[in-house]
Amino acid sequence: MKILATGSALPKKVVSNDDLAKMMDTSDEWIRTRTGIRTRHIATDETTTGIAVEAAKKAFQASKVSIDELDLIICATVSSDYIYPTLACEVQAALGAKRATAFDIGAGCSGFLFALATADAYFRTGRYKNALIMGAETLSKMMDWSDRSTCVLFGDGAGAAVVSAEGDQLLSMVQGSDGAGGMALKCKNRSVSNLFHQVAAEHYSYTEMNGPEVYKFAVRTVPNAVGEALEKADVKVDEVKLFLLHQANMRIIESVAKRLGQPLEKFPTNLQECGNISAASVPVLLDSVYKEGKICKGDKIVLAGFGAGLTWGACVIEW
Ligand code: COA
């Protein structure tokens, strides 16, 4: 597998902590010191499909792959515009990628890692050559805006990568899930209600999170997953140039850096500007780091995601 190109898109409206403090009982100081987040992009007239297509087009144009050569589209999302059709099918239609097989993956904030692993597995069948993998979210619509403990943490955005079967950049991949811990971060779908079993009219559900539980899960799981991925790749932690972690909370990133014995400078971040954009966070960060020229041929980098499910994934890439 080889990453040919990346792209990203963020909604134009930027909401600061101070903006939120005018609308709810919170403060810039609380949000910044607990999480590192300063602003987030919030969709207004954008949709998940709209920002996904924008990110996909940018990655696609830079990849030099022709639309007829695209045979796989995998979108990681928990906030598509429709329950069905999938976001991946919407992106396929917008791109006119008629040959592609398109489907979504729901793995919360680990979604992009799961999409990458799935594309790699498809490539290994020998029947797929080029894939568009994405993470795209409008989490703002999934928030209970009267719950200050969750709504200040999340944002909206989309990131994409065009990957090809011709290459051997992916040195290792580790994935895991712990469904037993899943209720720590959840958003309920509709209840069963039909002619034969009716429930009283229900309201939409929103994100509910046990913050301290998710925090403990992240600081325990991510260093282990990264360690396992490094071992599988036979790469020493000091050889890694950059660690691109899911952007949930600065304190989680600091804790992982400490556990791995690595300087914080090796952990680029965008959570200050974007908040937590779930499946989009790793590809949006990858896109900006790559475009800033911080990744060169031969560099070893780690990508890692963790989140709802509970799920986690980590991989080592040699660029
Ligand atoms: N503004 C001001 N006060 C807030 C607040 C907000 N936005 N949200 C919660 N509070 C209050 C609570 O009501 C509580 O008040 P109380 O002590 O009077 O009951 C207090 O702040 C809790 O503060 P604290 O104990 O310092 O919170 P914390 O250190 O557990 O941090 C999180 C909370 C959510 C930042 C932290 O648990 C976390 O980051 N968890 C991981 C979440 C995550 O990353 N999820 C996504 C993973 S993909």
Explain the layout of strands and helices.
Layout: E1 2-9, E2 14-16, H1 17-21, H2 28-35, E3 39-41, H3 48-63, E4 72-76, H4 87-95, E5 101-105, H5 111-124, E6 130-138, H6 148-151, E7 156-164, E8 170-177, E9 185-186, E10 208-209, H7 211-233, E11 242-245, H8 250-260, H9 271-274, H10 281-291, E12 300-307, E13 311-318
Parallel strand pairs: 4-5, 4-6, 11-12
Antiparallel strand pairs: 1-7, 2-3, 6-7, 8-13, 9-10, 12-13
Helix pairs in contact: 3-4, 7-8
The structure holds coenzyme A.
Descriptive keywords:
five-stranded mixed beta sheet, 10 helices, 33% helix, globular, 319 residues, alpha/beta, binds coenzyme A
Please summarize what this structure is.
The protein is α/β, with parallel strands linked by helices. The chain contains ten helices and 13 strands.
Overall description:
By secondary structure, this protein is of the alpha/beta class. It has helices at 17-21, 28-35, 48-63, 87-95, 111-124, 148-151, 211-233, 250-260, 271-274, 281-291; strands spanning 2-9, 14-16, 39-41, 72-76, 101-105, 130-138, 156-164, 170-177, 185-186, 208-209, 242-245, 300-307, 311-318. The strands form 4 sheets. The chain has a 5-stranded mixed β-sheet, with helices on both faces. Helix 4 links the parallel strand 4 and strand 5. The termini are close together. Bound molecules: coenzyme A (COA). Coenzyme A binds at residues 26, 30-31, 34-35, 109, 148-149, 152, 209, 211-212, 214-215, 248-249, 276, 307.
